[in-house]
Amino acid sequence: TWTMGWEYDAIFPSTQTYNGVPFNLVKDANGNKVFYEGTLEIPVNVYGVTNAYTLAASYCGYYGTTIGKVEFFGSGDGYYSVDLVEGNNIRDHYWGSYNNIIDGVTAVAAFNKSPGHAGFDMQLYDLPNTFLDETLLNVVFTGYNMGTAGKPWLAALTVETTPVVTPVPATLWLMGFGLAGLAGIRKKFKQ
């Protein structure tokens, strides 16, 4: 219901890919598209997470204001927290009179970010190596209700794991051939 909010209707619900990362955009039981007030705990339960991505923006954001945070909790010692700071990794959803700047490193444009339109950005989280051998149990999104200084909202979360490298059959054949060759060399030296 915020300025130009109807522009989101075309993509909810659906699966969208932004900057090569897939997101499942859904509505909750009440028909809401985004979470924007208080704290939301998102169960993840994925092992070996290396990166996470959110789709988020703010309402009435002012440059430099810390308006929330995103926390990652692992099954062991894994913990990581990132503040949501206007002008750094989050900006106002409507390109108008509020903060329209992100750093382009920890957040990049995703949906419909152009003057006079509504949209959101993709935040990028490079998790510490601690999470490589742990299960990411949950992610907690907290919005500080800063009133007219900014309220963050979350539309989606995606996590990425370390790819498991499995040898292809040709590689196995070459490895077997190499081992047979080593066995032949060893036998030759024994004689």
Description:
By secondary structure, the chain is mostly beta strands. It is 12% helix and 41% strand. It is built from 1 helix and 10 strands. The protein has one helix at residues 169-190; strands at residues 14-18, 21-25, 38-47, 49-59, 66-74, 79-85, 107-111, 120-126, 135-143, 151-161. The strands form 3 sheets. The chain has a 4-stranded antiparallel sheet, with no helix packed on it. The chain has a 4-stranded antiparallel sheet with strand order 7-8-4-10, with no helix packed on it. The longest helix has 22 residues, at 169-190. It is globular, with a radius of gyration of 23 Å. The chain starts with 13 loop residues before the first strand and ends with a helix.
Give the SSE map.
Layout (H helix, E strand, L loop, with lengths): L13 E5 L2 E5 L12 E10 L1 E11 L6 E9 L4 E7 L21 E5 L8 E7 L8 E9 L7 E11 L7 H22 L1
Antiparallel strand pairs: 1-2, 3-9, 4-8, 4-10, 5-6, 5-9, 7-8
Report a brief summary of the structure:
It contains one helix and ten strands. It has one helix at 169-190, and strands at 14-18, 21-25, 38-47, 49-59, 66-74, 79-85, 107-111, 120-126, 135-143, 151-161.
Which features characterize this protein?
mainly beta; four-stranded antiparallel β-sheet
Poorly predicted regions are 185-189
Q: Per the principal axes of the C-alpha atoms, what is the gross shape? A: globular
Output the structural class: mainly beta
Distance between the termini: 85 Å
Instruction: Work out the radius of gyration.
Output: 23 Å
Order of helices and strands: EEEEEEEEEEH
How many helical elements? 1
**What is the strand arrangement across the widest sheet?**
3-9-5-6
Helix content: 10-25%
